[in-house]
Amino acid sequence: MGDTNTGTSEKPAAVLIVEDDPVSSELYSVQIQDKLPAQCVVCDDSRKVLPILVQHNIDLIILDLNMPHISGQEVLAQVNLQFPDIPVVVVTSEDSIQVAVDCMRHGAFDFITKPVAEARLITAVQHGLRIRSLQQEIHSLSDRLQGLQIRNPEAFSGIITVSHHMRSIFSYIEAVASSPKPVLVLGDSGTGKELIAQVLHQLSGRSGSFVPVNVSGLDDTMFSDALFGHTKGAFTGANTARSGLVEQARGGTLFLDEIGDLPMGPQVKLLRLLQEGEYYPLGADSPKTASVRVVAATNANLTQKMEQGEFRKDLYYRLMAHTVRVPALRDRMEDIPHLVEYFVTQACAELSRPRLQVPQEIYRILAGYEFPGNIRELQSMVFDAASRATGAQLPVEPFRTYVVGPPSVPDASGIPQGGGTSISYAGQFPTMEQVEQFFMEEALRIASGNQSRAAGLLGISQSTLSRRLKTE
Ligand SMILES: Nc1ncnc2c1ncn2[C@@H]1O[C@H](COP(=O)(O)OP(=O)(O)OP(=O)(O)O)[C@@H](O)[C@H]1O
């Protein structure tokens, strides 16, 4: 089934079949359990329906209208009154419009006449279960959002924040963590999207691993090989079979970073994986079944990308089943002092030096800054300043220079000429590649060769910087 691994609940749904004819109930049961992730319970006495609903979590009812003791219509009315969220699929031998209208009026979800065609039964049950799962999700979300109670504060301990907006995001994360549907994490570069993906995995209760992969710019073959693996001899040099990241993440979470920069070709393959729960390793004739939860992140504007025909709408709608929008640091400036303290502690531990004190002046300087590189940029600034400290305090000067004054004086071309690197174009205007190369080298120089910090200065991820440096 298409959605079995990636689209619906992993726990089998409970279907109650209310039918006094054992042949029919057995047939429905076998057909449903064969085609859907569902467990059927049969009830041949309509008087027992309500007690069963009280004692068990039933997700959907198949109800024969012609029952002895209490009629199907009466059971339907009772269920609709006491358990309005449970979809009821009515089955009857009466092919009458009036009966159908009556049932719908009394809250039936669907109406099927006997003899029951298997495909019709399966579609009705599938639709009913989907509605049921959406209802449960909405209840869970509104419960969580109303209370803003964080049930697992320890899971969020690595995400430093005092922002009310971030706390509401934590609450949402807790609500959707155990859902098997994809999560799309949106936000500017360096806002903490990967941290959020890790917490989603941690709270998902999944026993498999968290497997991150940066998919930016991967072509068709690179994408298939990385995610799906290959068979022995699939291409020249494929001397042994290799399983891909989807297999590594079996029972866990596959984190697709920079999904907005995935080219169109591989987007089709990803869509198929999400829709069918299946994939073909390179060189394989038969598909493999995937069992992963997908979390994707991007700092790109996907709406714009879809308008420009660079991102598939069907893929977007698959991925955004749950969406988390992480606010930029400039929209939660109240977090800055807490983040600075946190990073100072980290930096001092890494540099094996006593904890530095943070002068208030630093906060005044940072209050006027926009942070295009967000938290990664702040982290780099703090680490850089901590490594320059000579006394007991975090030095103010590196922050002032960074925020207030440019590190070097630009010449007429607008390109800074300070530092050890320069760009010369002898009357010819530099190309974008040259400009990009210049700034990457400049950032690396300022960050003393530390790629992660250089990436922070440039407002891009470390993996993107590393890839761009390799392709230069
Ligand atoms: N709230 C936070 N508390 C502590 N550290 C944080 C927080 N948010 C982000 N960080 C740190 O900032 C850095 C960047 O975070 P992360 O990689 O999760 O961002 P991202 O949004 O995925 O970036 P990109 O879009 O560039 O991939 C990491 O070192 C992360 O640990």
Automatic annotation (TrEMBL):
> Superkingdom of the source?
Bacteria
Instruction: Recall the GO molecular function terms of this protein's record.
Output: ATP binding; sequence-specific DNA binding
Question: Which parts of the sequence belong to the Response regulatory domain?
Answer: 14-129
| Ranges where the Sigma-54 factor interaction domain occurs | 159-387
Q: What is the name of the protein in this document?
A: Response regulator with CheY-like receiver, AAA-type ATPase, and DNA-binding domains
**CDD domains, alphabetized:** AAA (cd00009)
Which InterPro entries does UniProt cross-reference here?
A: AAA+_ATPase, AAA_lid_NorR, CheY-like_superfamily, Homeodomain-like_sf, HTH_Fis, P-loop_NTPase, Sig_transdc_resp-reg_receiver, Sigma_54_int
The record's section on SUPFAM superfamilies has: CheY-like, Homeodomain-like, P-loop containing nucleoside triphosphate hydrolases
What are the UniProt keywords, alphabetically?
A: ATP-binding, DNA-binding, Nucleotide-binding, Phosphoprotein, Transcription, Transcription regulation
Q: Does the keyword Nucleotide-binding apply?
A: yes
Residues bearing the modification 4-aspartylphosphate: D64
One GO BP annotation here? phosphorelay signal transduction system
